[in-house]
Amino acid sequence: MIVLKESIDVNQTMASVFKYTSDFKNIQEWDPGVISSVKKQLGNPRVGSIYDLTLKFGPFRPKMTYVISEYSPYSKVILNGKGESFKATDTIAFVQTPVGTRIDYRADIQFSGLSNRMEYFFAPALKRSGKKAILGLKETLNHGSRFARKNTWFSSGSNIVDYMADHTFFFGMLMFSKLGYLMSRRFWAKNDEILYGKKVVITGGTSGIGRAAAIKLAEKKADLTIIARNEQKAVTVCQAIIAQTGNSHVDFLLADLGVMADIKQVAKHLIDRKKRIDVLINNAGALFNDRTETSEGFERTFATDLLGVFYLTQRLKDSFSKSGARIINVSSGGMYTQKIDVKDLQNTQQPYDGTKAYARAKRAIVILTELWAQQMSRAKVAVNAMHPGWVDTPGIETALPGFHSLVHSILRTPEQGADTIVWLAASKEAGKWSGKFWLDRRPHETIVFPKTTESEKERQALWVKLNRLTARF
Ligand SMILES: NC(=O)c1ccc[n+]([C@@H]2O[C@H](COP(=O)([O-])OP(=O)(O)OC[C@H]3O[C@@H](n4cnc5c(N)ncnc54)[C@H](OP(=O)(O)O)[C@@H]3O)[C@@H](O)[C@H]2O)c1
Fold first, then answer.
1. Number of CB atoms found within 10 A of residue 354's CB
2. How far is the CA of 305 from the centre of ligand 1 (A)?
């Protein structure tokens, strides 16, 4: 349970303060975390009055409902709130003072499925958001609603770290964790479409998310090829998938996807073997904490997470099926923190930071997704990017051991992380979309921080550079 307690003094009478504050249709005027609040009944607030709220959590728009459970004019109101993964009780007490009214605001918040340790971890960011809301209430009551809205976290100049802590990190944490998956899946229809006869290619199917996706795709009867770099692992995984699913149409091809010469060769073998491709899943990727270069002289993050994805997709361009092929690019929520730097794609101009390099490559993948979606729309190829959430895989454990041990209990399983990949590959609904960025079967904004927006010129420059760098192979 997280308890937020704040008190403010305002220069208004108890009656007017009570009337304004207790009617939660006004909350959007003073709480910057609320986009809208709709009162479900006409007339004055009373016990049983219901408010449907849309909240703003970074790129997400979760819903919650408040019901008034105690209404004692002009001294107290209690509202019980319920979101998809949390409950809140807001107790607001009003006391007359010589100059106006004091409001004592207390919120008791309980997240379902969150350990004590994680609550402790989230509490500071949540308390900061609560403080901003109650200060917004104070400003609104003393100066009117326009003042409070202007003074939100976004326009008050609060720095990016604050914004991250309050919005992206905290809320991202929830949505990217298994809670986000469990919350979202309540709204899903069954994904029972099969992929019988569909030629599906997945990179990085030997571990983590890719392996879980490969099993599901084989269960859906896809004709599946895994592109892997480690032959022994590939043999073992293919044998296991065939044994588990009974689908014998599972094979592999070998390539190091950070090496362009390998990619050129594997693309040729794929086209020779498959003739046409219905689904390409660019899943392989990694975060490297130290800067190293491939045998071809490319910085490894750039080569594996961006240039290789670009080159493989471009090499296969003419072999995508003419009847609704799909490309799925596995990006990451980390990309929200970074803008591309076209002048420094290979991370040479600043001290190397693996997380930043990874996020930039994943940002570029989202841009490529949008560019390909436009270019391939006439060929009826749907191109989408997705974020699997934060998933307990060997990759994350190796790259971010501290993060892994801290949040281990709320990470998704590989199957949960793979769900949207499989849905994008197989479902009829997903086939209607192209150029989007998905998390848990829902399209999401690609920009959270305005400063991470690239210009059209930078998008074109990215395209030209990737083409130039791969032209010699
Ligand atoms: N886990 C998360 O929380 C998370 C979050 C956001 C995005 N992602 C993305 O999800 C994707 C899968 O990651 P994961 O967490 O499942 O990691 P993982 O367990 O390390 O699996 C990565 C897969 O990619 C393969 N791979 C890596 N580099 C390769 C290369 N140069 N050539 C060929 N194959 C290569 C690996 O092959 P080996 O088996 O030979 O190592 C493995 O099959 C990645 O794109 C990652 O960036 C993951």
1. 18
2. 9
339-367 per-position pLDDT tens digit: 999 999 999 999 999 999 999 999 999 99
Distance 204 CA to ligand 1 centre (A): 6
HSE value, Cβ hemisphere, 13 Å, CA-based, for 272: 7
Rounded-to-integer distance, Cα 142 and Cα 343, Å:
49
Average pLDDT across the chain, whole number: 89
Q: What is the pTM of this model?
A: 0.73
**Are 70 and 213 in a shared domain?**
no
Q: Which domain holds residue 63?
A: 2-176
Same domain, 144 and 212: no
What angle is formed at CA 356 by the lines to CA 352 and CA 360, rounded to 5 degrees?
Answer: 115
Pick the atom of ligand 1 nearest to 362's CA. Answer: 47
pLDDT in tens, 201-227: 999 999 999 999 999 999 999 999 999
Please report whether residue 252 resides in a domain.
Answer: yes
The answer to whether the CB of 396 is under 6 A from ligand 1 is: yes
Instruction: Check if the beta carbon of residue 277 is closer than 8 Å to that of residue 199.
Output: yes
Measured distance CA(426)–CA(419) in Å, rounded: 11
Cα separation, 446 vs 433, whole angstroms: 15
Cβ–ligand 1 contact at 354 (below 6 Å) = no
